[in-house]
Design goal:
Number of helices: 3
Order of helices and strands: HEHHEE
Strand content: 5-15%
Structural class: alpha+beta
Number of strands: 3
Strand order of the largest sheet: 1-3-2
Length: 84
């Protein structure tokens, strides 16, 4: 469990932890980012996790596939991901 800081929003703190895990290689490219797992790990609402993952998606660190989930980037080209 994370020790929350009062001066920063929780979603930003979660995003910071996830960014560090991605940049260190703890979360390698292609790894599924499970919202449910993060909700349980951090003890926060889905909304908080979704704000954090949206931020990381905007930074290009993760990508989302409808009905499959979010994954650590870089996003593979369309032909590798099964899309035409």
């Amino acid at each position: 469990m994370i020790e929350w800081r009062a001066d920063t929003s929780r979603w930003m703190q979660v995003a910071t932890v996830l960014r560090k895990r991605i940049e260190s290689g703890e979360y390698p490219p292609g790894r599924l980012i499970s919202e449910r797992g993060l909700v349980e790990e951090f003890g926060v609402a889905y909304t908080t996790i979704r704000k954090a993952t949206k931020h990381l998606r905007e930074e290009g660190l993760i990508y989302t596939r409808p009905y499959l989930g979010s994954f650590v980037g870089p996003e593979p080209p369309a032909e590798e991901s099964g899309e035409a």
